Amino acid sequence: MEQMTKQIFRVVPILMGLMAILSNDVFAQIPTGTPRTDEPIDLSTTSDIIIYLVLPLVVIVLGIFWWFFYKKPKNQKAEEERKKSNK
Fold first, then answer.
1. Which residues contact 20 (CB under 8 A, 6 or more apart)?
2. d(Cα 47, Cα 53) in Å, to the nearest integer?
3. Residue 75 CB neighbours (<10 A)
4. The three-state (H, E, C) secondary structure of the chain, written as one string
5. Whole-prediction pTM value?
6. Contacts of 53 (CB under 8 A, 6+ apart)
7. Are 48 and 42 spatial neighbours (Cβ–Cβ below 8 Å)?
8. Confidence at residue 62, expressed as pLDDT on a 0 to 100 scale
9. Ramachandran area for residue 30 (φ above 0: left; ψ -120 to 50: alpha; else beta)
10. Which pairs count as long-range contacts for 39-46, CB under 8 Å and 24+ apart, including other chains?
């Protein structure tokens, strides 16, 4: 059961990535009546700095902290329990 779950978690991201790549044209359509600009991001405004720089960096940093302080120790504890049960 555990091995099947691991296989599913390996296959799902691959399938989602393929769906995102293959359906790129569908997601790239711009609805009618919406303003469209082909200009690059203007980093002289505070809102653009927050949206395009600060928020992604915060998400990345929080993800790294979550991995090192929650997920990684939890995996180490599970591995230690497996080693003890095998002895």
1. 27
2. 10
3. 11
4. CHHHHHHHHHHHHHHHHHHHHHCHHHHCCCCCCCCCCCCCCCCCCHHHHHHHHHHHHHHHHHHHHHHHHHHHHHHHHHHHHHHHHHC
5. 0.46
6. 43
7. yes
8. 93
9. beta
10. none
Instruction: Convert the pLDDT of each residue in 30-75 to its tens digit.
Output: 777 877 777 888 889 999 899 999 999 999 999 998 888 777 667 7
Instruction: Collect all residues with Cβ–Cβ distance below 8 Å to 30 and sequence separation of at least 6.
Output: 36
Going by C-alpha positions, the residue among 57, 54, 56, 35 that lies closest to residue 45 is 54
Task: Yes or no: say if 65 and 76 are a contact pair by the CB < 8 Å rule.
Answer: no
Write out the two tokens for 17. 């990535």
One-letter identity of residue 27:
F
